[in-house]
Amino acid sequence: MFHNFAKKQTLKMFKPGKHTFLWRPLLMIIPLMIIFTCPFSSKAQHEHKLFTSNIILETKIHYGFLYAQHLELQLFNSHFPAFELSIEKLTYGRQRWERAYNYPILGMTFFYSPLGGNPILGSSFALMPFINFPLYKDKAFTFGFRFALGLGYLTKKFDRISNYKDIAIGSHINAAINLMLEARYRLSEYFTLTAGVSLQHFSNGSLKTPNYGLNAPLFNIGLAFRPVRDNKDIGDRYIAPTEPFSTTIRNSIEFNIGGALGYKNMKSELGQNFLVYHLFENTFFQVSRKSKFGIGLDLSYDESHKKLLEMSGITATSPFDIMRPGVNAAYELMLGKLGFIMNLGIYLSGKEKSNGPLYEKLCFQYKFSKDFFAHVLLKVHFGRADYIGWGLGYSFDVFYGKKTIK
Question: Which of 122, 114, 108 lies closest to 172, judged by CA?
């Protein structure tokens, strides 16, 4: 009987209607929330003095609009809602970096938006792991920054015949990025009220063109539910469980040398695919237990530039005409073995100049051994993704003294 009822409701959910894009996601989210938030006995879980559950369930409702970062995207202007369901985990300082960042919240979120019901763009779905960094916190109120990165799926994409107006996205599968400033107010031991502003971004990193990307500024309100109350027998996690961190380390300069291979599907524009070869070096000085600052060098060889030069009437006589060396300012945010690196640079030469003289790089770097790391990087020009690269690198230090960091 329940199976037949569920089947009828599912068929109704996909029945076309004037306002279906508003209530369809609710029919998906509400049953999940009921399942996850049903009361259950937790007495046995508290038999151990130091046990406490750190799982939180949260739902958000967003409302916002598509931002046309290029004039060509203005035909997609619209306002629309979005919906989010998250499972989160409080941190208690088991790792040193958790204490360094004031006990962030880790989680996974499911995001859905109808994107205004536009038949050209379709709808968007995303599954994004995230980390929520507290910037200010007391016992009832927290203000923080949330960074989420995962995979997105768009139901519509560019097609030469059936959907030629969709110049925003050339693929169904995309990277999904969400940047959010969020306020959280604890109403009780079980419920927390949340509100924030965010930017939701979809892009495939030019793995397949066209790739202007989609950007949606959003405002949200939400409610978080913690099924198990706080265990009062453990230390207060709103203050450091130990003395303020400080240690004496050897002064050092860190050198990171690496390479990456990128891929660009430009069949819709240039009729073929291209590879990008990228070499880099970053020199870092550690200024705190969280941050490193430095300078970097880049050298890229993009095979598509030769084709673009030919279309402009310029002949590339040697590989050096295609190479683009650059110098940049670098910053690394450290999270244990994982580093998030940002570079802002300027090209020193290169005949192909359609992207302008400035570039940005975003890189996730993971040390799988003492000296070697794997990384994925995104090359960007004025907010427009150029390519994604994957590669390996080598890191070493040169020591020259001692210092104390906090």
Answer: 122
